[in-house]
């Protein structure tokens, strides 16, 4: 089958189409014919080798992790799905990729595709949906009326997380550039800061939660807008000791991650707030709950651009520019 792969970890990882064997499934897996693959910034980071100590792939590795498609075969131990079901899933952290024609998908990470969404819309959801869910609901347990700062409201994460936070009853502030101000307001943001004109740390105060989504010194500056007891849940790092411990990493990596997060931990302690790094995990049961919110249109997918399969590499290059308004998706079938 045809797949977009990278051949080595490097600045020039040789990304291109390759013929790879069609997967054979284990008893707890589904063989899925992929109709669409959603892209995420980490798809561009993995081939550089920056996640090599954390994410394991056999090379050449199939790129991408989000998918929507049709089940064409089920393993002997599968109970929740049958041949012909339309599903969506994240293969993140499973050593497997989605920018290809078929994938073996463990039953535990798949969910029925909401029938109100087409395959492209469904494939845009898994990583941003699960990350937002795990950050806002699971890690921060946000409550109605709390104030949440979600920077980069126009990105893949921002467009989903703003809608989820509003659904949970929070008051949401976000940042974006001038051209996207209306877009993020329409998604529900209560306070919109045009970062080309204003610094968020001079406008916001007494927040309960910051979702760390933008690089540079934004995480450190966020400390100043939180109330005592507030939280930073960062998606971009620095990685911390708790992350290393949860993944049972060796002493050396645990030490390195501890050092990387030392400064933010110190700042957080001084202000009586908490800092943690979140690494999304695939979860079919959560994706099912997310699917229910999509089905009832409480949350809507926001798609920026759809590329045909042959242009998957250009789709990744487009995403790498960092200007996507919502999600970038590759239509495979
Ligand atoms: N830890 C995890 O498990 C996890 C999971 C998912 C994502 N992530 C990370 O989370 C980050 C966000 O992901 P994403 O999917 O949302 O990326 P994305 O879709 O590529 O984000 C693009 C958006 O970011 C906005 N943006 C860029 N710089 C900005 C700034 N300084 N201030 C405000 N907005 C800015 C852009 O808006 P303008 O054009 O208006 O600037 C654009 O709309 C990435 O670093 C990703 O790797 C981590």
Automatic annotation (TrEMBL):
<protein>
    <submittedName>
        <fullName>NADP-dependent oxidoreductase</fullName>
    </submittedName>
</protein>
<dbReference type="InterPro" id="IPR050700">
    <property type="entry name" value="YIM1/Zinc_Alcohol_DH_Fams"/>
</dbReference>
<dbReference type="InterPro" id="IPR036291">
    <property type="entry name" value="NAD(P)-bd_dom_sf"/>
</dbReference>
<feature type="domain" description="Enoyl reductase (ER)">
    <location>
        <begin position="11"/>
        <end position="330"/>
    </location>
</feature>
<dbReference type="InterPro" id="IPR011032">
    <property type="entry name" value="GroES-like_sf"/>
</dbReference>
<dbReference type="GO" id="GO:0016491">
    <property type="term" value="F:oxidoreductase activity"/>
</dbReference>
<dbReference type="InterPro" id="IPR013154">
    <property type="entry name" value="ADH-like_N"/>
</dbReference>
<dbReference type="InterPro" id="IPR020843">
    <property type="entry name" value="ER"/>
</dbReference>
<dbReference type="Pfam" id="PF08240">
    <property type="entry name" value="ADH_N"/>
</dbReference>
<dbReference type="Pfam" id="PF13602">
    <property type="entry name" value="ADH_zinc_N_2"/>
</dbReference>
């Amino acid at each position: 089958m045809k797949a977009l792969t990278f051949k080595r970890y490097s600045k020039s990882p040789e990304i291109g189409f390759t013929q790879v064997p069609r997967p054979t499934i284990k008893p707890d897996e589904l063989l899925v014919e992929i109709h669409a693959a959603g892209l995420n910034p980490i798809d561009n980071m993995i081939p550089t080798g920056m996640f090599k100590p954390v994410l394991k792939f056999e090379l050449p590795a199939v790129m991408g992790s989000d998918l929507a498609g049709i089940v064409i075969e089920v393993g002997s131990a599968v109970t929740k799905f049958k041949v012909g079901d339309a599903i969506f899933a994240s293969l993140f952290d499973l050593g497997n990729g989605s920018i290809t024609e078929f994938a073996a998908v463990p039953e535990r990470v798949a969910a029925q595709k909401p029938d109100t969404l087409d395959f492209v819309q469904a494939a845009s959801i898994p990583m941003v949906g699960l990350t937002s869910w795990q950050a806002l609901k699971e890690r921060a347990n946000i409550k109605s009326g709390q104030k949440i700062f979600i920077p980069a409201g126009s990105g893949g994460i921002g467009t989903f997380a703003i809608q989820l936070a509003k659904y949970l009853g929070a008051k949401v502030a976000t940042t974006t550039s001038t051209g996207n101000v209306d877009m993020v307001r329409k998604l529900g943001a209560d306070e919109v800061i045009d970062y080309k004109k204003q610094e968020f740390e001079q406008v916001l105060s007494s927040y309960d939660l910051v979702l760390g989504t933008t690089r540079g010194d934004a995480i450190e500056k966020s400390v100043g807008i939180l109330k005592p007891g507030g939280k930073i849940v960062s998606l971009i790092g620095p990685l911390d000791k708790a992350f290393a411990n949860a993944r049972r990493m060796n002493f050396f990596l645990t030490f390195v991650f501890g050092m990387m997060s030392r400064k933010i931990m110190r700042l957080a302690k001084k202000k009586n707030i908490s800092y943690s790094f979140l690494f999304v995990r695939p979860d079919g049961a959560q994706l099912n709950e997310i699917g229910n919110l999509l089905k009832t249109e409480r949350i809507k997918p926001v798609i920026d651009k759809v590329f045909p399969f042959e242009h998957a590499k250009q789709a990744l290059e487009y995403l790498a520019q960092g200007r996507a308004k919502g999600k970038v998706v590759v239509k495979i079938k």
